[in-house]
Amino acid sequence: VGRADGPDVRDGWWISIEPSVRLSPHSIVGPDLAGWCKSRLPELPDDWPLDVRPDWVCEVLSRGTARYDRSTKAGLYAQAGIPWYWLVDPTERLLDVLELDGDKWRIFGCFGDDQRLVLPPFGEFEFEVGALFPPQRAGAAAAQTLLARLSVEQSPRARTAAFRLARTALASLA
User: Fold this and answer.
1) Fewest CB atoms less than 10 Å from the CB: which of 18, 20, 37, 87?
2) Which helix (DSSP H) or strand (DSSP E) does residue 33 occupy?
3) pLDDT 10s digits, 32-69
4) Which residues, given as ranges, of the chain have pLDDT below 70?
5) Which of helix, strand or coil describes residue 25?
6) What are the Cα distances from residue 41, in Å, to 50, 55, 122, 123, 158?
7) Torsion-angle region of residue 145: left (phi > 0), alpha (psi -120 to 50) or beta?
């Protein structure tokens, strides 16, 4: 799995947490995670911000950052030519894998926490998507299922009351 014109991923990876990366003379970003193939970057420099574009970046979405990560950062990463962009959504327990196609992002796939996969750009490394998320309590899963059902099956007044009840239940489980 991966791109034929990409770096050789068999040599391994440097993965850094919240690195400072200079994408252009006026653009320094701090992705949640970034990775460089060791075939392209044999040694991880001590100098920060790093001036070598990553081969992969990952953002963990939150209420406060989701819009920025999906729009502004996605545009910056595409302009810089970063080939792979992962978006981890802990609320929905989903992983979106995006591949750069020219200057636009193409959705490689959206994966749930119940899947075990080999995903680009990491070659043959298989992992469980659910390992990206904290364990989910049975009560929280049931409350989330209830919320999803209520949004479809109830009248607006009943749905509002049920949402309040389910959100209270979810908050008490967190």
Assistant:
1) 18
2) strand 33-37
3) 999 999 999 999 888 889 999 999 999 999 999 999 99
4) 1-10, 137-174
5) coil
6) 11, 10, 15, 17, 58
7) alpha
